[in-house]
């Protein structure tokens, strides 16, 4: 059954008159936030303000999909994308084919209460029915490595183990120091000796300075176009996440030489983006900045600082640099893949297959979006 409220359509599936699936858009932001923050393990990636920033970036329409039945509550935040907006499918009818993806970062279902096999099966059935009714063809999920919320959902998704990510234990300054490798401790001392100061703040001018430093950083790393965020995206983060965001920066002789955008929520901190002036990398400002960020987290009652992994989940030089802050090991990162409508999925793949030379990149999902504009 569909019930329309303003610009958003709520879809309900009922058992004995009780709603099981409800979907909330940004026009129901207060309700979305109330539901999500009631989950014990909620994180910044599930907040509507975070998802909104990536709508502005062009990633789709944010939705909270909420399931409740018996002793089970479950919530998933997704970006709903009209496949006709992809250049390779411009001829498709608008509104006829959609797919879902986790917002930039991590996500996947949060489940509280009964998470047993029978409950997950009921969730899977209702969720799949909802998605098919909304012309949603497939879903790609980046599960949250700190929460390990892929576990138990193997019946719902095809799981793929990706690379590793690094998290810093913030139990105490002593624990932080013990987990930093000796070479990196020396680099931090070198940065201090050079006169670098680590500061933090939350001003729009800092976001603009971050953008100024970040784009050359992406140029040096040959980053894809997607990773160049426009000013309106930063403005959305700045205005929407004031209670969940902070900028740390390294300063030398009054000049900012490295910066990071830190996200935080519910005892968890996440290194969101980092930028730097490569003329000063020999002084290790980034290592010093990460260290001071961790100490700030400890002083303010946070339990973990998630540094993330390498580029594209690879265990590259960026990942190896981050492992210097956790000698105790890393966390495994999983993705989930789901096809709701096999017939439509096949049609989309066959449509792409008519292009000269088209071949899906190995491991890419959904395959029909491979090398898709």
Number of helices: 10
Q: What class, by secondary structure content? A: alpha+beta
Number of domains: 2
The N- and C-terminal alpha carbons lie at a distance of 35 Å
Low-confidence stretches: 1-13
Largest sheet: 14 strands, mixed
Whole-number average pLDDT? Answer: 93
Oligomer: single chain
Share in β-strands: 25-35%
Helix content: 25-40%
What is the helix/strand order? EEEEHHEEEEHEEHHEHHEEEHEHEH
Q: Strand tally, please?
A: 16
Shape: globular
Please give the radius of gyration in angstroms.
Answer: 22 Å
Question: What is the strand and helix layout of this fold?
Answer:
Blueprint: E1 2-5, E2 8-11, E3 13-15, E4 18-24, H1 29-37, H2 48-56, E5 61-69, E6 72-82, E7 98-101, E8 110-113, H3 117-133, E9 136-142, E10 158-169, H4 173-179, H5 182-193, E11 197-201, H6 204-220, H7 231-240, E12 245-252, E13 255-265, E14 268-276, H8 285-299, E15 304-308, H9 317-323, E16 331-339, H10 342-353
Parallel strand pairs: 7-9, 14-15
Antiparallel strand pairs: 1-2, 3-4, 4-5, 5-6, 6-7, 6-8, 9-16, 10-15, 10-16, 11-12, 12-13, 13-14
Helix pairs in contact: 2-7, 5-8, 6-7
Describe this protein's structure.
This protein has 373 residues and is α+β, with helices and mostly antiparallel strands. It has helices spanning 29-37, 48-56, 117-133, 173-179, 182-193, 204-220, 231-240, 285-299, 317-323, 342-353, and strands at 2-5, 8-11, 13-15, 18-24, 61-69, 72-82, 98-101, 110-113, 136-142, 158-169, 197-201, 245-252, 255-265, 268-276, 304-308, 331-339. The chain folds into two domains: 2-156 and 341-369, no CATH class; 165-332, Aminopeptidase (3-Layer(aba) Sandwich), CATH 3.40.630.30. Helix 2 (48-56) runs antiparallel to helix 7 (231-240), helix 5 (182-193) packs across helix 8 and helix 6 (204-220) packs across helix 7. It is globular, with a radius of gyration of 22 Å. It starts with a strand and ends in a 20-residue tail after the last helix. Mean pLDDT is 93; it is low at 1-13.
């Amino acid at each position: 059954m569909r019930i329309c409220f303003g610009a958003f359509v709520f879809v309900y599936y009922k058992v004995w008159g009780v709603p099981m699936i409800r979907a909330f858009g940004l026009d129901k932001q207060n309700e979305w936030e109330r539901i999500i923050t009631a989950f014990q393990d909620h994180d910044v990636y599930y907040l509507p303000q975070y998802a909104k920033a990536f709508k502005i970036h062009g990633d789709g329409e944010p939705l909270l999909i909420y399931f409740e039945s018996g002793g089970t509550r479950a919530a998933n935040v997704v970006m709903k994308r009209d496949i006709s907006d992809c250049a390779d499918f411009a001829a498709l009818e608008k509104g006829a084919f959609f797919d879902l993806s986790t917002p930039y970062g991590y996500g996947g279902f949060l489940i509280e209460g009964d998470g047993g096999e029978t409950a997950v099966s009921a969730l899977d059935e209702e969720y799949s029915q909802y998605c098919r009714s909304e012309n949603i063809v497939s879903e790609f999920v980046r599960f949250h490595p700190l929460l390990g919320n892929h576990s138990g959902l193997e019946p719902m998704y095809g799981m793929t183990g990706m690379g590793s990510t690094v998290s810093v234990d913030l139990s105490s300054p002593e624990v932080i120091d013990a987990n930093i490798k000796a070479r990196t401790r020396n680099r931090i001392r070198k940065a201090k000796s050079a006169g670098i100061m680590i500061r933090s703040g939350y001003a729009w001018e800092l976001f603009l300075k971050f953008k100024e430093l970040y784009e050359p950083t992406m140029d040096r790393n040959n980053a894809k176009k997607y990773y160049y965020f426009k000013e309106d995206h930063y403005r959305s983060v700045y205005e929407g996440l004031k209670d969940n965001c902070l900028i740390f920066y390294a300063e030398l002789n009054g000049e900012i030489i490295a910066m990071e955008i830190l996200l935080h929520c519910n005892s968890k901190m996440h290194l969101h983006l980092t930028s730097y002036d490569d003329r000063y990398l020999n002084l290790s400002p980034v290592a010093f900045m990460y260290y001071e960020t961790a100490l700030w987290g400890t002083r303010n009652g946070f339990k973990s600082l998630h540094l993330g992994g390498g580029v594209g989940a690879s265990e590259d030089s960026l990942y190896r640099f981050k492992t210097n802050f956790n000698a105790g090991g890393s966390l495994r990162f999983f993705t989930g893949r789901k096809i709701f409508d096999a017939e439509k999925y096949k049609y989309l793949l066959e449509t792409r297959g008519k292009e000269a030379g088209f071949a899906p990149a190995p491991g890419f999902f959904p395959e029909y979006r491979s090398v898709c504009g």
